[in-house]
Amino acid sequence: xxxxxxxxxxxxxxxxxxxxxxxxxxxxxxxxxxxxxxxxxxxxxxxxxxxxxxxxxxxxxxxxxxxxxxxxxxxxxxxxxxxxxxxxxxxxxxxxxxxxxxxxxxxxxxxxxxxxxxxxxxxxxxxxxxxxxxxxxxxxxxxxxxxxxxxxxxxxxxxxxxxxxxxxxxxxxxxxxxxxxxxxxxxxxxxxxxxxxxxxxxxxxxxxxxxxxxxxxxxxxxxxxxxxxxxxxxxxxxxxxxxxxxxxxxxxxxxxxxxxxxxxxxxxxxxxxxxxxxxxxxxxxxxxxxxxxxxxxxxxxxxxxxxxxxxxxxxxxxxxxxxxxxxxxxxxxxxxxxxxxxxxxxxxxxxxxxxxxxxxxxxxxxxxxxxxxxxxxxxxxxxxxxxxxxxxxxxxxxxxxxxxxxxxxxxxxxxxxxxxxxxxxxxxxxxxxxxxxxxxxxxxxxxxxx
Length: 450
Ligand code: 5AD
Ligand code: SF4
Prior knowledge:
The protein has 15 helices and 20 strands. The chain is α/β, with parallel strands linked by helices. The site of 5'-deoxyadenosine (5AD) has 12 residues, from strand 14.
């Protein structure tokens, strides 16, 4: 019998990308092959994010679209995973009766078994696991996370991701993550280091440590190192490049700032979500820092590491955000000069405190603010990229360019994408490239002498 084909469709954050990578590995080990085609798949799985309302709605549209495929292929299994599954649980099976499987993020490893059971049954079995109030990864679950379960790779195995902690205790008023992913729980440092070593042996050169709130790593778990100590341990494994995401600006001790520019593998790029430039909005969001303390942190980081590239997340139209508050956000973007920004219109999420706040900003106004902000940031990003022209950057070569013949594509240490002429044997190597041209989303250069 030909191997069954699975099509995994991922929406949302790094965590979901990571979970999908894990699922692909688990399914491959169970004899499945992966496909990008929904039409030929025997199993279609939507791995979803519900951090913003738009993502959750998008999921339902997608699920509705594949419904018709079931008529052509009665054995087709359609599943939903990730945070939407955790949040909606069995309600999804009731609302969408053509769904076969709803699996919360902590139950991902059970999918191959569930699929076997579903395909073995002649009648259509249906399954839902992982709904309810449990944290996404229970302690037993963490213990179960075997050596092969806690990581994923990209770019032909050159770029690796290792989850070091899950969950969040911060309860920002707009955010659904603490309800869906549960309280913070860190993985043992020994486990993490073993996994990093395994990834290095398999060819990973650029490693990102993942967690909803990595700076809180180890806090409250006796015997584990602090986050800066963990970074030093990971750096000592010999990894070429090291990054982490996501960081909360309120938990950025001087020991962590000091590692930028001094801990060799730690790259000159940092995602530091600010959310708003207005003190009033930051207070209502319960972010704990102020505009000034955030700007001081940025100054300290840049003093320590002058070439640091910074990216951020912004929410526009938080309940009660006035035009003046919004202007404070615009001026913060001008002051910091981010290399890139991810921006979102505020949306009410279930269970969050802000869902009950008054003074909601009209949709139209949110749209206007978002467009304005994105246009402004586009110019800033371009200027930031243009500042690299003439510089020589160390580029880890990932692949041949999808667009141009004889061109290679790689990333600089600050994670910027760069294209340059070269032959494929350079893939996997780190080479110096002189930047000649800058665009909005990437750079172009030529190979430079060492
Ligand atoms: N509405 C809009 N954006 C949100 N984010 C999180 N929750 C919401 C919400 N309710 C954004 C934040 C966060 C990013 C991952 O998603 O900017 O940093
Ligand atoms: Fe959500 Fe705030 Fe936790 Fe980030 S720090 S995951 S925004 S609650």
